[in-house]
Structure formats: structure tokens, C-alpha cells
């Protein structure tokens, strides 16, 4: 790690801590040449492979904007969307992969979105699970009803 002050090609790590969301590591460093201290934040890169084969860096903002469309007119706040995007990123990073297919991200969104808002879930699922007919919607609604009854029995 180059010193940002004197450009010395090495530095010594004094302290390491994970960030609040656990996705990155904050390191406090000291330059052996000039003695000045500085901080770095290190994250593992995560790339998304789109349908056309193009690779781009993972973006929580893209998750939020995509899910926001499904949540239009629903009682879902920006904070809810930010928390959902964080959950999705944590789930993806937990797999340990450095590249993920865009469609896999869409499928990973489904479970936390179902917990957040069932109508938004159905809207989003209709795209990512390629609903072709009313039967697909009826099946998804039946699954939600069965799950809800199971949750009521456990309570």
C-alpha cells in the first residue's frame, strides 16, 4: 500500500476492524518512511455478469431501483429498500463468489422481498420467474397463502 503523503511503496498495519455492515475492513496504517498515519477501506470485489455477457461492478443502487419499481404504490420506505439491498449483498457475499449472474441476483432478492411486501414480491417474481400465465400467479399466491397459514400455526 503506497503512502498517500510521500508515495513510499510500503506501510505497516496498526489496526484492523470490520465496518458496521461487515462488508469491508478498515485498516489504520503508518508509513515507515514519513511516519504519517492513514486509513484504508478494503472490500472484496463483486462483479455481475449481465445477460449480454458484459461484466460490471455490483451495485446496491441498482437493486434498490429495480425493487422500487415493484414497490410502487406500496407502503415501503427508502430505509426498507436499503435494508433489503444490504441483505441481498450480504447473502451474495456469503456464497464466496466473485462473479454472479444478474438473474441469480434477481432470484436472491425474492426471499427478503417476500418478507417485506407480498404484492411487491409477486410483481418482482413475475419478471424473474418468467410468469407466463394466470396459473403461474395463482400458484405463487397459493404458496404465499400456505406459508402464511404455516406462520400463523407456529405463532
Strands across the major sheet, in which order?
Answer: 1-2-3
**Unreliable runs, pLDDT <50, ≥5 residues?**
none
Radius of gyration: 21 Å
Tally of separate helices: 5
Shape: elongated
Helix content: 40-55%
For the report, how would you describe the main beta sheet?
3 strands, antiparallel
Instruction: Compute the separation of the termini in Å.
Output: 53 Å
The helix/strand order is EEEEEHHEHHH
- Based on DSSP secondary structure assignment, what is the total number of beta strands? 6
Helix vs. strand class: alpha+beta
Mean pLDDT across all residues, rounded? 90
- The amount of beta strand, in percent, is 15-25%
Structure description:
The protein has 155 residues and is an alpha+beta fold. 48% of the residues lie in helices and 19% in strands. The chain has five helices and six strands. It has a three-stranded antiparallel sheet, with no helix packed on it. A three-stranded mixed sheet has the order 5-4-6. It is elongated and about 70 Å long. The N and C termini lie far apart (53 Å). The mean pLDDT is 90.
Summarize the entry for a quick read.
With 155 residues, the protein is of the alpha+beta class.
Using brief descriptors, characterize the structure shown.
three-stranded mixed beta sheet; three-stranded antiparallel beta sheet; 5 helices; 19% strand; elongated; alpha+beta; 155 residues
